[in-house]
Write a structure and sequence with these properties.
Pfam families: Peptidase_S51 (PF03575). InterPro entries: Class_I_gatase-like, Peptidase_S51. GO terms for molecular function: serine-type peptidase activity. The protein contains nine helices and 23 strands. By secondary structure, the chain is of the alpha+beta class. It has a domain at 2-244: Class I glutamine amidotransferase (GATase) domain (Rossmann fold). The strands form five sheets. Strands 10, 11, 14, 15, 16, 19, 20, 21, 22 and 23 form a ten-stranded mixed β-sheet that branches. A four-stranded parallel β-sheet has the order 2-1-3-6, with helices on both faces. A four-stranded antiparallel β-sheet has the order 12-13-17-18, with no helix packed on it. A hairpin with a 4-residue loop joins strand 17 (267-269) and strand 18 (274-276). The longest helix is centred in the N-terminal third of the chain and has 15 residues, at 31-45. It is globular. It starts with a helix and ends with a strand. The model is unreliable at 306-315 (pLDDT under 50).
Length: 387
């Protein structure tokens, strides 16, 4: 909720009592209830000037060319894509063969002119032009075991599905996933990237945004395009451009995936991939607190307790995050690993900070009961099935 407040008050949507927000509810399965929720959030709680629930969804696709609707869209000072099912956004805002509707073209025109466009959950996943993840499908384990599939060809939502034609196309060069570490989605993003990077809309880079966290991208399309993390948790960045894959039925391995995890105040310049850690953080090397790194027997564990208090991070970290952070906080270990809880096969995730450019940075908690805010870059990840 604080991130939504930031969008109204300081994020470029117009400011308190001036922001006119258009809410894209195409992903939602309940238009009226979701509209009421966002009217309360943005109008009553955060004092926007007005909220317009754009009346386009899978049941009202004709509205995507309605001149009155398009004119109302153009009157807004900010656009917010609500959560739900990202594939419903595509069905609602595109014609056949991925041809954008007049409503989507209006949003793109406004975005190019500099208005704030944001999204939550499916509303974030649909932003890029690259292959679009179907957010509610597949787990990391299932993706590693069975692979990922074009949603137009496979309907079983136990598999990890994607749209090969991409999302709405506001951003280029990467895939976005959401609810990320909170649901143990590291494995599924890596598999999706590796399975689809050869496609026309494939990408070597993917971003996984944790809950209660935002990735703010500015100077879009320029050499200074920058992504900055704000919020309680972090954003996972995976690069498979140099990875090698061995895949066959019920067996999969990928080596040399480069991973970064950035937290509040950290930035990544998207063109040259330069990472700038927040000035509030300090290098961990030489100041590690633990002798050995952790390992895990449930590396994609999603059964975590989330704190919704004013603490800067959740009390209990997801397993992948804990193991990776502990590696950079270890005096003795340069490698660690985590296994999947599921067997037949078990997948092992190897993590290494041995590369010379691997670095961990942290903002230490005030005492041992407080949470450190830890970031890292250039963690090498290999995943292999053990049988």
């Amino acid at each position: 909720e604080k991130i939504k407040k930031w969008g109204v008050q300081t994020g470029g949507a117009g400011g308190v009592n001036h922001a006119k927000l258009g809410i894209v509810l195409a992903a939602s399965g309940d238009f009226n209830a979701t509209c009421t929720f966002y009217v309360n959030v943005f109008l009553d709680m955060y004092h926007a000037h007005s909220v317009y629930c754009i009346p386009i969804n899978v049941n009202t696709t004709s509205a995507n060319s309605d001149p009155h609707v398009i004119e109302r869209i153009k009157q807004q000072t900010g656009i917010f894509f609500a959560g739900g099912e990202p594939e419903s956004v595509i069905e609602s805002l595109f014609y056949k063969n991925h041809v954008p509707s007049p409503a989507l073209l209006a949003i793109k025109e406004m975005f190019d002119a500099g208005i704030l466009v944001s999204g939550s959950s499916a509303g974030a996943e649909c932003m890029p032009s690259a292959v679009m993840v179907w957010g509610g499908t597949g787990s990391s384990y299932n993706a590693l075991q069975f692979g990922t599939y074009d949603g137009s060809e496979v309907s079983d939502r136990d598999y990890q599905l994607y749209d090969k034609d991409g999302g709405v196309g506001l951003l280029d060069g990467f895939i976005i996933d959401a609810h990320f570490s909170d649901r143990g989605r590291e494995g599924r993003l890596i598999r999706l990237l590796s399975d689809t990077r050869h496609l026309h809309h494939g990408a070597n880079w993917g971003f996984g945004i944790d809950e209660d966290t935002a990735l703010v991208i500015t100077n879009v399309g320029t050499e200074n395009e920058k992504a900055e993390v704000i919020g309680y948790k972090g954003v996972f960045f995976a690069d498979v451009s140099q990875s090698n894959i061995t895949a066959k039925y019920n067996s999969y391995s990928i080596t040399n995936v480069m991973v970064h995890y950035l937290t509040h105040g950290d930035s990544l310049f998207l063109k040259n991939k330069t990472i700038i850690f927040s000035s509030s953080k300090s290098p961990m090397i030489g100041f590690e607190r633990n002798s050995r790194a952790m390992t895990s027997t449930d590396v994609f564990n999603t059964n975590i307790t989330i704190s919704h208090s004013n603490e800067p991070l959740p009390v209990h970290y997801p397993e992948f995050v804990k193991v990776a952070n502990s590696l950079f906080d270890s005096k003795l270990d340069n490698v660690s690993y985590g296994d999947t809880y599921e067997h037949n096969p078990t997948f092992r995730v190897y993590m290494s900070r041995s590369w010379s450019e691997a670095e961990g940075y942290t903002e230490r908690g005030q005492d041992f009961q407080s949470n450190d805010i830890t970031s890292y870059k250039n963690l090498q990840v290999n995943i292999t099935s053990l049988g």
